[in-house]
Amino acid sequence: MMLRKIFMALSALTLINAGSAGASAERPQLPANSDSDQNWALPSTAVIIDVGHGGVDGGASAGQILEKDINLAIAKKLYLLLKSQGIPAVLNRTGDYALSEDNRWHASSSRHRKDLSQRRQLTEEIESELLVSLHVNWSKNRSTHGPIVLHQKQGESALLAFCIQDTLNRQQNTAYLPKEGKPYYLLKRVKQPSVIVEMGFISNSRDLSMLTDPHKQQQIAMAVASGIRQYKWIVH
Q1: Where does 44-235 sit in CATH, by number?
Q2: Which long-range contacts (CB under 8 A, 24 or more apart) does 22-31 make?
Q3: Which tens digits make up the pLDDT trace of 52-103?
Q4: Which of 154, 214, 217, 224 is the most exposed, having the fewest neighbouring CB atoms within 10 Å of its CB?
Q5: CB atoms within 10 A of CB 215
Q6: What DSSP line would sit under 89-104, residue for residue?
């Protein structure tokens, strides 16, 4: 059911953003390799875009501005950019809801644990090359700013992180290096090369202005997409 909801939502998202208003009354069709197909096979994609937080989990905040909304806005832009560049991608969240609500299999009373395990589960249900998890940072020091990309211990994840960090540094005029994200659940449990992209600091006024500006959001998405393309060119 989770995969069905994702693919139907992605079909609708593509129609809406393509300006196909006349087709909106038509129910989006699942791809041929869906769970309605007798010869069911695992769906596949190049990139899983993990949209941080959602629903009751707003993430970091600045007044009424919530991280979950910024993550989703940029994730949708990244999805469309990758699609336009011939790189298949899926979003694991296309609206404001918590992925923990779809988790009926993890016997835990912790909503946070169920949310994380549901995100990891998707990487096992969809055959993919890599996972990019989008987030927004926060710091007590309001002067701290800029993007930080966290990676797994494995070499390919570090390479992906360096590629995305480089393009974000050039987009935001910073000079940070990516870091190994040792304590992060997704980076420890996901098998595919994976990174967590902290796109900026919601606690910094300059970054906040950038993160909430649709034009600047597009620039961030373009930088992440460029980093993904560089990584794919190197490994292939």
Answers
A1: 3.40.630.40
A2: 30/4, 31/7
A3: 888 888 999 999 999 999 999 999 999 999 999 999 999 988 988 776 444 3
A4: 214
A5: 7
A6: EEES-SSS--GGGG--
